[in-house]
């Protein structure tokens, strides 16, 4: 193995991590908002949330990234608007696509966790004189969040792996550097094996972290 | 391939089980795009190293191999869970009836595994469907690449990418409906009472229960 490639590849690691963290957090905030909207059945808004989930879970992430990055250039009004400096940046577009995608999948997950909370919990809250909103925020959500944690762990890893697609819109992340190095050296097996090892190390660390969090959060159920 | 993986992982021959687990963990831990690139560019490189000849693997073949590897890695996990979910009593009953081992596997275990595995396999089919978009990156002429070329020649990227997205959405919705039908069919012999316990099965509720 030629270890000279390693520093070159590690240059992209920062971008990959940054992209993953920012889009996960944005996606998480959106997903929590979406779940609240769905659970409280806010009119009109819950339709929109359902449509968003359908669109983003039903289409490939790669197309979403392409659509957000290349799509807006078709319209003069967007090109002239204040949003254009943001939308013409590959980093922002990749982040937006990943965040919306993650939000859609997480919303499904959180909604499932909330539906799995026993009815009696709602009834107990009612008996204590809590309003529906209070019950949701104070009792049901924390409970459901713990239940959703294992599945959300998978989502974290999926977003990390999905961030590698950002290299297709010219963003130089880990995969971007790997593809460039491959094109420069033609040493395909070495370059991609090394990249794979870095990704595996990241998934490994993440899995351990998630397991630790689960252990903490679910301590009460043991 | 997934069935083979699942059986190998459950096999009593430890080295085989370990090797398969490692392979599956590798495939699941890597980004799909890296696997696709690895198979496409890597196979050419490997052939070049071995034979000193430059042979170009067709992108379609490389894409198919990569996607089937990824799919079988995920599907084998579902199958493994489903195989373990078949009650032991069923096997014992088959042995008591004097059925041979292969006979038991094909006539008793596999049909029941299918019922337990169907929801999981269905989800993975939907994931695979979306992963097919990735092979556009190595030049397979599929939906996304067509959309890309049309977008480039008409200067209407939004229209064409949105169309491609809608076609994918359409296929997803049709598959979902078909899967629902198949699930209903595979559970047709269950009475409402037993189907209720089935829905609480660990394979199905994996997502929400820790």
Radius of gyration of chain B: 21 Å
CATH class of chain A: Mainly Alpha
How much of the sequence of chain A is in beta strands?
A: under 5%
Using the CA coordinates, give the radius of gyration of chain A: 21 Å
Description of the structure:
The complex is a heterodimer of chains A (222) and B (210). Chain A contains 10 helices and no strands. By secondary structure, chain A is mainly α. The mean pLDDT of chain A is 87. Chain A has helices spanning 5-39, 45-58, 61-70, 76-80, 84-87, 90-116, 119-127, 132-162, 174-185, 188-217. Chain A has a single domain, classed as MetI-like fold (Orthogonal Bundle), CATH 1.10.3720.10. With 210 residues, chain B is mainly alpha-helical. Chain B has one domain (2-205): MetI-like fold (Orthogonal Bundle), CATH 1.10.3720. Chain B is 79% helix and 0% strand. Chain B is built from 10 helices and no strands. The longest helix of chain B is centred in the middle third of the chain and has 31 residues, at 101-131. Chains A and B meet through α2, α3, α6, α8 and α9 of A and α3, α7 and α8 of B.
Helices, strands, pairings?
The complex is a heterodimer of chains A (222) and B (210).
Chain A: H1 5-39, H2 45-58, H3 61-70, H4 76-80, H5 84-87, H6 90-116, H7 119-127, H8 132-162, H9 174-185, H10 188-217
Chain B: H1 2-10, H2 14-29, H3 32-51, H4 59-85, H5 88-96, H6 101-131, H7 143-154, H8 157-186, H9 192-199, H10 202-205
Question: Can you give keywords for this protein?
Answer:
heterodimer; A: 222 residues; mainly alpha; MetI-like fold; 10 helices; 80% helix; flat; B: 210 residues; 0% strand; disordered C terminus
Q: What's a concise summary of this model?
A:
The complex is a heterodimer of chains A (222) and B (210). Chain A is mostly helical and 222 residues long. In chain A, 80% of the residues lie in helices and 0% in strands.
């Amino acid at each position: 193995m030629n270890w000279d490639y390693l520093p070159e590849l590690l240059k992209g690691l920062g971008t990959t991590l940054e992209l993953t963290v920012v889009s996960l957090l944005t996606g998480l905030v959106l997903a929590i908002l979406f779940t609240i909207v769905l659970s409280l059945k806010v009119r009109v808004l819950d339709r929109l949330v359902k449509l968003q989930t359908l669109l983003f879970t039903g289409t490939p992430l790669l197309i979403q990234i392409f659509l957000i990055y290349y799509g807006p250039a078709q319209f003069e009004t967007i090109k002239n608007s204040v949003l254009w400096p943001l939308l013409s940046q590959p980093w922002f577009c990749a982040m937006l696509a990943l965040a919306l995608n993650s939000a859609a999948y997480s919303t499904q997950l959180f909604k499932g966790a909330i539906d799995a909370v026993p009815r009696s919990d709602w009834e107990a809250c009612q008996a204590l004189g809590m309003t529906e909103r209070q019950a949701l925020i104070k009792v049901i959500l924390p409970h459901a969040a713990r239940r959703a944690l294992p599945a959300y762990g998978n989502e974290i890893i999926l977003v990390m792996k999905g961030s590698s697609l950002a290299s297709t819109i010219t963003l130089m992340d880990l995969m971007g550097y790997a593809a460039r190095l491959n094109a420069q050296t033609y040493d395909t097996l070495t370059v991609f094996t090394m990249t794979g090892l870095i990704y595996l190390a990241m998934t490994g660390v993440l899995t351990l972290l998630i397991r630790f969090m689960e252990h903490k959060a679910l301590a009460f159920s043991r | 391939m997934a069935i083979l993986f699942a059986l190998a992982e459950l096999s009593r021959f430890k080295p085989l089980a370990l090797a398969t687990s490692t392979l599956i963990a590798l495939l699941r831990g890597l980004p799909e795009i890296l696997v696709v690139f690895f198979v496409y560019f890597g196979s050419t490189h490997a052939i070049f190293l071995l034979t000193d000849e430059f042979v170009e693997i067709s992108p379609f073949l490389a894409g198919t191999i990569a996607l089937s590897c990824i799919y079988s890695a995920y599907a084998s996990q579902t199958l493994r869970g489903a195989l373990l979910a078949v009650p032991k009593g069923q096997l014992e009953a088959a042995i008591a009836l004097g059925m041979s081992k292969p006979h038991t596997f094909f006539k008793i275990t596999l049909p029941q595994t299918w019922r337990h595995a169907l929801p999981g396999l269905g989800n993975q089919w939907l994931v695979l469907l979306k992963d097919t978009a990735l092979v556009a990156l190595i030049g397979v002429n599929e939906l996304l690449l067509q959309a890309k070329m049309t977008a480039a020649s008409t200067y209407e990227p939004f229209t064409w990418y949105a169309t491609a997205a809608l076609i994918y959405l359409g296929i997803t919705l049709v598959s979902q409906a078909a899967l629902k039908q198949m699930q209903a069919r595979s559970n047709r012999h269950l009475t409402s009472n037993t189907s209720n316990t089935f829905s609480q099965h660990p394979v199905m509720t994996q997502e929400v229960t820790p």
